[in-house]
């Protein structure tokens, strides 16, 4: 095999369509665009959501809902997760930094403690927010709650 006798595999190279070059080409007349309509014209560009003059879906369906710009998003941590962390690392005070170190919370997330699960020992818990039941459960176990 030398450079002068290299050829592409049979059927791998197709000749391109020569459109609009008369009836002998097989692509004359309408030039593979069909008959009439906007898509057959030169310079056709479709608008996003255009449905051929019919009222488009995004205008037929009514608007609803809104995005509250003042919403505060919290990462929820349950009491059973706090209990597990406290027993695993033998802690009496749990802060947001401890939760980050354990991989339960991301760097910038605000933390809210929820009351799912039970707490059996007195813990000092520090977080951005608490549910009422979580606060009651922590204080009932002899612990204290402080908001960051």
Brief sketch in words of this structure:
The chain is built from 4 helices and 6 strands; from the N terminus they run H-E-H-E-H-E-E-E-H-E. With 148 residues, the chain is of the alpha/beta class. It has a 3-stranded parallel β-sheet with strand order 1-3-5. It has a 3-stranded parallel β-sheet with strand order 2-4-6.
Biggest sheet statistics: 3 strands, parallel
How are the strands of the biggest sheet laid out side by side?
A: 1-3-5
Radius of gyration: 34 Å
Oligomer: single chain
Structural class: alpha/beta
Poorly predicted runs are: none
Total number of helices: 4
- How many beta strands in the DSSP annotation? 6
Helix content: 10-25%
How confident overall, as mean pLDDT? 93
Instruction: Summarize the helix and strand pattern as letters.
Output: HEHEHEEEHE
What fraction strand? 5-15%
Shape: elongated
Compute the separation of the termini in Å: 77 Å
What does this structure look like?
By secondary structure, the protein is of the alpha/beta class. It contains 4 helices and 6 strands. It has helices at residues 57-60, 79-89, 96-101, 132-140; strands spanning 74-78, 93-94, 110-114, 124-127, 129-130, 144-147. Strands 1-3-5 form a 3-stranded parallel β-sheet. The longest helix is centred in the middle third of the chain and has 11 residues, at 79-89. It is elongated, with a radius of gyration of 34 Å. The N and C termini lie far apart (77 Å). 11% of the residues are buried. The model has no long low-confidence stretch (mean pLDDT 93).
């Amino acid at each position: 095999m030398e450079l002068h006798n290299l050829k592409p595999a049979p059927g791998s190279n197709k000749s391109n369509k020569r459109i609009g070059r008369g009836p002998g080409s097989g692509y004359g007349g309408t030039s593979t665009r069909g008959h009439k309509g906007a898509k057959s014209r030169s310079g056709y560009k479709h608008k996003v959501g255009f449905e051929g003059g019919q009222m488009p879906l995004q205008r037929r369906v009514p608007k609803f809902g809104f995005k509250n710009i003042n919403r505060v998003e919290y990462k929820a941590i349950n009491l059973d997760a706090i209990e597990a962390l406290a027993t695993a690392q033998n802690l009496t005070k749990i802060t947001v930094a401890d939760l980050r170190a354990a991989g339960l919370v991301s760097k910038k997330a605000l933390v809210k403690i929820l009351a799912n699960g039970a707490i059996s020992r007195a813990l000092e818990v520090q977080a951005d927010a608490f549910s009422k039941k979580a606060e009651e459960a922590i204080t009932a176990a002899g612990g204290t709650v402080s908001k960051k």
